[in-house]
Amino acid sequence: MDPISETIDRVLSAYKTAERSDLIPILQDIQDTIGYVHKNAVHKIGLKLDIPPSKIFGVLTFYNQFRTEPPGKYHIMVCRGTACHVKGSEKILKTIQNTLKIEPGQTTSDGLFSLEVVACVGACGLSPVINISGEFYARVTPESVREILKTLKSEAKEEAQRDV
Fold first, then answer.
1. Would you list the domain boundaries of the chain?
2. Sequential pLDDT tens for the chain (164 residues)
């Protein structure tokens, strides 16, 4: 059995008396564990809860908290809350999209970066703000974002060379 299937089975085993109302918590636990909701999880959850996979995919696509593809090594969240919007987060988002050639919800072909737009990260005093894999970058500008991305690419390249 592959590691993802084993992980899914381990998460599901914690829900011994699972019911349909456990669907969202199960999906959240799987995503927290694996980083996204793998297609095998949908089928296994469907069998456990007696829910058709199409209904589970409906839930996954309705709530923007769920990902069905693995996130990049660097998961970028661009805040689009009011304070960030007023301070230019649209330009930040466009800069990231143009630099990485991806849209929100996508991952770069090399698997390094994924992009997500979020309603608010709760750091209004730092606006505009982005979060990359848990690290906040405050008062970003298009220029500083390009530099951040360049630095992360360089670090990933150096790390890959060390691992060879």
1. 3-62, 74-163
2. 788 899 999 999 999 999 999 999 999 999 999 989 999 999 999 999 999 999 999 999 888 788 888 889 999 999 999 999 999 999 999 999 999 999 998 999 999 999 999 999 899 999 999 999 989 999 999 999 999 999 999 999 998 888 77
Report pTM. Answer: 0.77
Residue 18 φ/ψ, nearest 5 degrees = -65, 145
* Residue 3 CB contacts under 8 Å (≥ 6 apart), including other chains: none
Residues 80, 117 contacting (CB under 8 angstroms):
yes
Q: What is the CA radius of gyration of the chain?
A: 18
Q: Domain 74-163, CATH 1.20.120.80 — does that match?
A: no
